[in-house]
């Protein structure tokens, strides 16, 4: 068997969005990103992240041109991390984010972004 040329590393995660400017502003606020990332090609917005990247995308090739926009994540595709699960939950609540669960097992909670994507925060 030959060695795979594909790295055992996640380079980034694409997040389907319907309004790139609104999504960029919301994610920057929720993640404490102070600089305003540039929108590339009219549909991509890579966010400055620690670790694997997060790329907001209108996904024109994957349903973004349809009237409803690209399909949203209905199961969490990844998690954001925190050292303060209670503070993170309260921050989301204070910012009127749609919370899907309470803090579960003192370790995680789920929420939806403005496009309806299901996401998690874990301690």
Can you describe this structure?
This protein is α/β, with parallel strands linked by helices. The protein is built from three helices and seven strands. It has helices at residues 20-31, 60-64, 85-94; strands spanning 12-16, 44-47, 53-57, 79-81, 98-99, 108-112, 118-122. A four-stranded mixed β-sheet has the order 4-7-6-5, covered by helices on one side. A three-stranded mixed β-sheet has the order 1-3-2, covered by helices on one side. A hairpin with a 5-residue loop joins strand 6 and strand 7 (118-122).
* Annotation field: number of helices: 3
Q: What global shape is seen?
A: globular
> Which range best describes the helical content: under 10%, 10-25%, 25-40%, 40-55%, 55-70% or over 70%?
10-25%
Q: Structural class per helix/strand content?
A: alpha/beta
- Share in β-strands: 15-25%
The main sheet comes to: 4 strands, mixed
For the residues shown, what is the average pLDDT? 95
Radius of gyration: 16 Å
Give unreliable regions as ranges: none
| Major sheet strand order | 4-7-6-5
Note the gap between the termini.
39 Å
- The ordered H/E elements are EHEEHEHEEE
The tally of strands reads: 7
